[in-house]
Amino acid sequence: MRVLVDQCLPRHLAAEVSGHEATTARAQRWLGLRNGVLLRTAVNAGFEVFITNDSSIEFQQHVKRIGIAVIALVGFRNRMQDRRPVVVAILDELTTITPGQVITISRG
Predict the structure, then answer these.
(1) Would you place residue 85 in the very low, low, confident or very high pLDDT band (cuts 50, 70, 90)?
(2) Average pLDDT, whole number, for the chain?
(3) Are 6 and 50 in contact (CB under 8 A)?
(4) Helices marked H in 10-69 — which ranges?
(5) Is 51 exposed, middle or buried (0-12, 13-18, 19+ CB in 10 A)?
(6) Which of 10, 27, 55, 65 could serve as 80's disulfide partner, Cβ 3.0–4.6 Å?
(7) Is the pLDDT of residue 7 over 80?
(8) Interatomic CA distance for residues 62 and 83, integer angstroms
């Protein structure tokens, strides 16, 4: 599965998403793109899942119409050591997530 990690998350998170083709918005040189443009650009480039910490993205964007799945990480500090425990949950969600679906993974 092709996975795009938002610029607001640690770039090392992409490397933790093993078994999938994961990269970052930074690596794609898509810094500064607003969410709607970013999501459409990602879909056009073949990405299937977008990982972000923007908890309101499902209310701001028509994710279903855009055709990309979103995993929102909520309530975690933005350091890789704080995000690492959630990688197992991300990998688990990647096995069943479908285009247009928004999954929120929150801290306990």
Answers:
(1) confident
(2) 91
(3) yes
(4) 13-16, 35-44, 57-60, 63-66
(5) buried
(6) 10
(7) yes
(8) 26
- Predicted local distance difference test score (pLDDT) of residue 58: 84
Residue 33 structural domain: 2-106
80 falls in which pLDDT band (50, 70, 90)? low
Contacts of 101 (CB under 8 A, 6+ apart): 63, 64, 69, 70
| 3-state SS assignment for residue 69 | strand
pLDDT of 52 above 90: yes
Upper half-sphere CA count for residue 14 (Cβ side, 13 Å): 20
* Total count of domains within the chain: 1
Distance CA 38, CA 70 (A): 12
Comparing CA positions, the residue from 51, 41, 40, 38 lying closest to residue 1 is 51
